[in-house]
Structures are given as C-alpha cells and as structure tokens.
Write a structure and sequence with these properties.
With 71 residues, the protein is mostly helical. It has four helices and no strands. Helix 3 runs antiparallel to helix 4. The longest helix is centred in the last third of the chain and has 16 residues. It is flat. The two termini are 28 Å apart. 8% of the residues are buried.
Length: 71
C-alpha cells in the first residue's frame, strides 16, 4: 500500500500523452489502442461497452478540437 501511495504522490502532476494530443489539436493514438481492441473484440463476439464509449468520446473530442477537461 505504501508503494501505491508513493506512485500516486510522485505522478500526481503527470499528464497523459493522449490528453496532450487533444489539448494541442493533434491526432491521438485512440484508434491504435482502443479502436483495435473494440474491433478485435467484435470479431470474437465480445462486448466492450466501456471501451466503445471511450473510443467514441475521444473521437468526438478530437473532431471538435476540445480538451478532455479543464487543466
């Protein structure tokens, strides 16, 4: 538990690369990550509702040029 708390403390100010991409109007890697997962799961008959939602939301934000949330 102490190690987890330490990681949280040390990385609290970090920003993900995908958020930086959205904030700076760049193309994200969402298709390569979640897009592949959702596509492959459909091929295998597996539902991935949360990943589908994540993929759709990041695609929407990217198309709209919006930030994920206020800094």
């Amino acid at each position: 538990a102490d190690a987890v708390v330490e990681v949280i403390r040390v990385t609290a100010a970090n920003t993900s690369s995908m958020r930086l991409d959205l904030d700076q109007g760049r193309t994200t890697e969402i298709e390569a990550i979640s897009g592949y997962l959702c596509h492959r799961a459909r091929q295998l008959g597996i539902d991935t509702p949360l990943n589908d939602q994540l993929l759709q939301r990041v695609q929407q934000l990217s198309a709209q040029g919006q930030q994920t949330c206020p800094p």
